[in-house]
Amino acid sequence: MTPPSQYAYPAHWEADVVLRDGGTARVRPITTDDAERLVSFYEQVSDESKYYRFFAPYPRLSDKDVYRFTHHDYVDRVGLAVTVGGEFVATVRYDRIDSRGMPASAPADEAEVAFLVQDAHQGRGIASALLEHIAAVARERGIRRFAAEVLPANNKMIKVFRDAGFTQKRNFEDGSVRLVLDLEPTAESLAVQRGREQRAEARSVRRLLGPSSVAVIGAGRTAGGVGRTVLRNLLDGGYTGRTYAVNVALPPELTEIDGVPAVRSLAGIEEPVDLAIVAVPAERVPGVVADCGEHGVQGLVVLSAGYAESGPAGRERQRELVRQARSYGMRVIGPNAFGVINTSPPVRLNASLAPEPPGRGRIGLFTQSGAIGIALLAGLVRRGAGVSTFISAGNRADVSGNDFLQYWHDDPDTDVVLLYLESIGNPRKFTRLARRTGAQKPVVVVKGARHSGSAPPGHAVPVTRVPDATVSALLSQAGVIRVDTVTELVDAGLLLANQPLPAGPRVAILGNSESLGLLTYDACLTEGLRPLPPLDLTTSARPEDFRTALAAALADPGCDAVVVTAIPSVGENGAMESGDGEVLATALREAASTAPAKPVAVVHLEIGGLAKALSAATTTAPRPGPVPGPVPTPPPDAGTVPGRMIPAYPAAERAVRALGQAVTYAQWRRQAAEPGRVPEYDDIDESGAAALVDRVLGEAPADPHGTSLGDDDTRELLGRYGIAVRPTLPAPGPDDAVEAAARLGYPVALKTTAPHLRHRADLGGVRLDLTDEERLRSAYRELTELLGEPAELRPVVQAMAPRGVDTVVRAVIDPAAGAVLSFGLAGVASELLGDVAHRLVPVTGREAAELPQSIRTAPLLFGWRGSAPVDTAALEELLLRVSRLVDDHPEIVSVALEPVVVAAHGLSVLGASVRLAPPPSHDDLGPRRLPSY
C-alpha cells in the first residue's frame, strides 16, 4: 500500500460552512498532527454516542485507533473534521471496500462511512453538512456509493441519511440498519442542499440584524468619534435590547457612558452579547475578535478601516480577520462598514453612522459603499419612504449581498430588495438566489465599477471575464431589475414597494398639461409601453377633477397603470397658482383607494407639498404570496386602504422608466411560474462523451488554459450529443481540392482556415457554390494569388449547405459566472454592435425559444422583407443540445459553432471548436461553503 506521505494534502477540501443555527464552522481533512485534538474530542463525546458509533462500549481510543483515524491516504481512506475555535466537534471518515466489504483500492467504487458528532453540537446540522462534503470528496476519488451500518435506535443518524436526497437502499441485517447511498447528485439532493443553505445563511443574517444585546467596542468617553456616534444612534433609535459600551482605555471609575454600562473588556459583562460593533484601529481588531470569540459573541460589524482598501498588507489583514472570526463561529459585516439598521418594532436597531435614520418601510437596502448608503437613505427619507433593513457592508469580506438575499427571500417585513453592488463575488450563486427571491418580490440592482475591468479597492473577489453586457443579460434572465443610477434605484424602489404590479403594458395618462402629457406619452413609447391617448384636464382642473378622472381610468379594463401629470393651475386672473398639494394628494389617494389595485405614479412640476403629502400614507400594494405565479388584477377594494402612498416624480421620464421596469418584472414573474424544462434526448451518449473527454485530458500535457480538440475528436464529441458537423477535407494543393470535391460531391465551398482569416468572409477567404472542377481550380488560383501561399492559408473543401441565415452558437465557462450559452448572427456587423443574446446553462425549452428572438437582428430569422422564415425549431434544438453538453461535462470550457447556417428546413453546422480543461474544484453545485477570497 502506498504510504500516506506520498499523497499531497488536499487543501481544496477545506471549507467554512454556515450551520443550522447561523454559526460557522470549518471542515478540513484530518492529518497526522491531529492526534491530541482527536483524543480530546473523543473524551467529550457521551457514552451513548460512542456506543452508536462503535456498536459497543468504547470509553477511550487506543493508540492504534488514534493512528488509524489520523493517518489517511486521501484516496481510499479519508477523514474530515469539523472544527470550532480550532478544536474538533465532529468527524467523518470513509474506507473504500470491495464487494465482500474488505479494504480495497480503485476500481472498487463503494466505501463505508461513519460519523461522530460531539453531543454539545448535535442538532446544529453538522452531520448533514459533513455528508455533503464527504460525498463530494468520495465522488472526486471515484467512489459512487456509501454504505453505512447504523443501530436502529440511532434515529438522528438514520434521519441524516434519509433526508439527504440521495437515492438509497435500506435493509435490516444482524441487528443493525444497513444503508446504501448512491452519491450521484439528484434534483432532490440538490434541492435539499440549497434549502439547508438558505435557512442557515438566513439565520446567520437574522442573528446580526435581531440581536438581544449589543456591545459597541471603541465607544469613547467624549462625544464624537465613530464608536460614540454609533452608541448614540443606537440609543436615539430606541433599540430594545441591552446595550454596552466597551473601551480598553476607560478609567476604572467610569462605569457608564450615555446611560449604558461601560466596561474595559467583554469579560466585564456577565450576560451574553449577541452582536459587537467594532470601532477600534485595525491593529487592535485581532485582540477584540479574540475577546468576542471567547465571550460567545455571535456576529461582528467591523467599522474599522485599514484593510484591503489600503493595499496588499491590508488585504492579508482582512483575510486573517475573516479566518479568525469564523474560527469562533462568528460572521462579519465589513470591515470598513457603515453599519446596519433594522426598523422592526421588536428590535429598532440603528447600529450605523447614518446622520438621518430612515423610518419603517418595506424596502430592504444593501450597499457596498458608505457614501452611496448615505445618499440612498437620504433620498428615501426625503421622499417619505422607509426601510425594513439597511446594510452597508464596506469591503464585505464575509457577509455579502448573497447572504442578505437569502434572508430577504422569506422576510415578511420586506417587499422590495434594493442593492448597490460594486462587485459580485459569486455571480452564479447571485443569479440563482435573485431568481428565487424575484419570484416572490422584486430585486433591483445598480452596479458600480461596470467598466473598470476590476473590483474596487477592498473587494477581494474573483475577476470575471464576462462582459458587462453579458452580466446584464444574465441578471435579466434571473428577473433582476437592473438600473443605471442610484436615482433610478430609488425611483424603482418607491413604485415597487408601494404600488401593485401592473397586469400589462397599457398606460393611461391624465393631467392638467397637454405638453407634459405628450412628454409622458413619448416616454412610454421609448420604454416599450402602450400608452393610451393622454387625457387633458386643462390648466383650470381642480382636485375633484383629478379624482374623477383617476377613478375612471383605474376602472377602465383597458388600462393597466396610470400616470398622473400635474402642474400649477391657472387662476381666474391668469396667474399661476401652485395650489395646495395636500388637497390634490388627498383627491388622488381617495380615487386610488376605491378603484382596482393598479399602479399609479404622479409627475408634478413645482406643486408645493404634493410629493410629501402623497408619501405620507400607507401602502396598498398587495403583499407578494409565497408561491410565484401570475399577477392577477384584484377585484375592487382588494388590498387597498384609504391613504394610499403614491410615488411622485419630478420628470415624466423617471416615472415612466420606473413603471416600465415594473411591467417587465411583472411579465417575468408570470413566466417564472412556468419556467419550462430541460428536455431529454434519447440519442445523447453521455457516457461515451465522458470517456472521450477523459481520454483527451489524460493524453494532453498539463496546461491550466486547457487543450483544444482536434477536428476528428470535435466531430465525435458533438456527434455523441446529436450535433452533426459537416466534414471538411484539407486541400494543400489544387489537385487535393479536386479530389476532396469528388469525395464530397459538388457543389462545394473552398475556405481558408488560417487564424487571421477564419470566419472572415469579408476578407475574401471563402468561395461558394463551386459546381465543377474548372470553377474549383479557378477559385483556388484566385485565393492563393490574392491572400498567400496554401501553407499559410490552410485551405479546406466542404460540401455546400442549403442557403439560409448564418448564425453563431457559443458556450463558455466563466470561473465565476458559470456556463453561459450565447447566440447571434454571424458577421462583423453583429460582432461590432455586440448583438448577442445570453442565457445561463442549463437552458430550458422556453429560454432556448427566447434566445433567437432576443437579438436586434432577429427579424432576419423570421421572414424580413419577404424572405423565407428559417427553421427556428431546429435552431432551438441545437441550442438545447449544446447546453446539455456543457452542463453534463464541466471539463468543456468552451464550444464554438460557427457558422451555423439555418435554412427554411433544418440547419448545417459548418465549423466547430471545443476546448477542455480540468473541472474546477468548487462550483455552485458542490457542497455548501462560504467564499474564501
Question: How would you portray this structure in words?
Answer:
- The protein has 933 residues and is of the alpha/beta class.
- 34% of the residues lie in helices and 22% in strands.
- The chain contains 27 helices and 41 strands.
- The strands form 7 sheets. It has an 8-stranded mixed beta sheet, with helices on both faces. A 7-stranded mixed beta sheet has the order 11-12-10-9-13-14-15, with helices on both faces. It has a 7-stranded mixed beta sheet with strand order 17-16-19-18-20-21-22, with helices on both faces.
- A hairpin with a 5-residue loop joins strand 27 (569-570) and strand 28.
- Helix 11 packs parallel to helix 12 (427-438), helix 16 packs parallel to helix 17 and helix 26 (845-853) packs across helix 27 (872-888).
- The radius of gyration is 32 Å and the shape is flat.
Q: Give the percentage of residues in beta strands.
A: 15-25%
Q: Which structural class do you get from the secondary structure elements?
A: alpha/beta
Average pLDDT figure: 89
What's the helix count?
Answer: 27
Overall geometric form = flat
The portion of residues assigned to helices is: 25-40%
Radius of gyration computed on alpha carbons = 32 Å
Largest sheet: 8 strands, mixed
Strand tally: 41
Distance linking N and C termini: 37 Å
The low-confidence parts are 1-6, 618-642
Give me the side-by-side strand order of the main sheet: 1-2-3-4-5-6-8-7
What layout of secondary structure does this protein have?
Layout: E1 15-18, E2 24-29, H1 35-43, H2 47-54, H3 63-70, E3 77-84, E4 87-97, E5 110-117, H4 126-140, E6 145-150, H5 155-162, E7 167-173, E8 176-182, H6 187-209, E9 213-217, H7 226-236, E10 242-246, E11 256-257, E12 260-263, E13 275-278, H8 285-295, E14 299-302, H9 312-327, E15 331-333, E16 339-342, E17 349-352, E18 360-367, H10 370-382, E19 387-392, H11 401-409, E20 416-421, H12 427-438, E21 443-447, H13 468-477, E22 481-483, H14 486-498, E23 506-511, H15 514-526, E24 530-531, E25 535-536, H16 543-555, E26 561-566, E27 569-570, E28 576-577, H17 581-593, E29 600-604, H18 610-615, E30 648-649, H19 652-672, H20 686-699, E31 707-708, H21 711-719, E32 728-730, H22 734-744, E33 748-752, E34 766-770, H23 773-787, H24 790-793, E35 795-799, E36 805-814, E37 818-825, H25 828-833, E38 836-840, H26 845-853, H27 872-888, E39 892-902, E40 907-909, E41 912-916
Parallel strand pairs: 5-6, 9-10, 9-13, 10-12, 13-14, 14-15, 18-19, 18-20, 20-21, 21-22, 23-24, 23-25, 23-26, 26-29, 29-30
Antiparallel strand pairs: 1-2, 2-3, 3-4, 4-5, 6-8, 7-8, 11-12, 16-17, 16-19, 27-28, 31-41, 32-35, 33-34, 33-35, 36-37, 36-39, 37-38, 39-40, 39-41
Helix pairs in contact: 6-11, 8-9, 10-14, 11-12, 12-13, 14-19, 15-19, 16-17, 20-21, 22-23, 26-27
